[in-house]
Amino acid sequence: MTAFTYDKSFEGLLCCVFYAFEQQVTPDILLHSDDVKPLFLEKSFPIVTESEKSARVWSALEKKISPSACHMLMLVWISELPEVDLLLFRYIYKAFKSTESIELNFGDADVLACANIYKKVNQSCHKAIQFVRFQKTSDGVFFAPISPDYNVLLLVAKHFSNRYADQPWIIYDTKRNYGLYYNLHKTTEITFSESPVDNSGKLKAEQLDSEEQLYQQMWKDYFKTMAIKERINLKLQRQHMPVRYWKYLTEMQ
After folding, report:
1. Is the dihedral of CA 44, 45, 46, 51 positive or negative?
2. Strand arrangement, sheet containing 142-146
3. Same domain for 200 and 109?
4. How many Cβ atoms sit within 10 Å of the Cβ of residue 211?
5. Which of 148, 172, 201, 217 could form a disulfide with 247 if both were Cys (CB 3.0 to 4.6 A apart)?
């Protein structure tokens, strides 16, 4: 068994690809530099992340596959799924080795796996946009907690900065403990030492604007009034609005 050890960054992964072609060796596993080595490991190669090498690999990859395929690889990377780096390594390695495009070769297990993960991450982006509910704080900032299945916060930043360009807002990923703050001019990444919301996904009463609770109640009343009892279909509702997102939806609390 052969292993590459690297810093688990995307640039580091590209350097792993560079090293594989340079030294004509491919890994069976990819490990973090601090990981405990498997018992039956035969060879281990430390890979140093170098921006020049990673840029060369990415530039060559952009010439080898389409822009949509490059975008797909980035979304697969942020899925944070176990061993997704090894999956991407095999995909990129095959793309360089093949004389033809592998993008639509769904008979290949790695190509199919990447396509399926991409679909799930893309769907998670749409759900993150659909199920955001802002709460106005006492200092005039609109705050929205989310907890998406995948790390898609940066992917939806442009949508919200365009859609809500006239108001300051924070969208905070409680699962990964970081968020984005828009101050009417630019969007920056922020973190809190403690979770800003309670277990129900709400800010504390003293953190809210004086009229926020009134608006939340009005929204609940509107949601209830617009529902047609005879046409309520809970099974269909859960398909379009999964229960795991209800925690942060004002109308479902």
Report:
1. negative
2. 135-136, 142-146, 169-173, 178-182, 187-190
3. no
4. 10
5. 201
Judgement on whether residues 167 and 96 belong to the same structural domain of the protein = no
CB 206 within 8 A of CB 138: yes
Question: Cβ(107)–Cβ(61) under 8 Å?
Answer: no
What is the count of structural domains for the chain? 2
Range of the domain at 20: 2-124
**Rounded distance, CA 223 to CA 135, Å?**
17
Q: Who contacts 43 (Cβ-Cβ below 8 Å, separation ≥6)? A: 1, 2, 3, 25
Do 13 and 95 sit in the same domain of this protein?
Answer: yes
The pLDDT of residue 174 is above 80: yes
User: Could you tell me if 109 and 179 lie in one domain?
Assistant: no
Mention every residue, 6+ apart, whose C-beta is less than 8 A from residue 75: 117, 118, 121, 122, 155
Domain edge (last residue) among 90, 124, 158: 124
pLDDT tens profile 102-146:
999 999 999 999 999 999 999 999 998 988 989 999 999 999 999
Is 0.85 surpassed by the pTM of this model? no
60 and 100, same domain (yes or no): yes
Structural contact between residues 177 and 191, judged by C-beta atoms closer than 8 angstroms:
yes
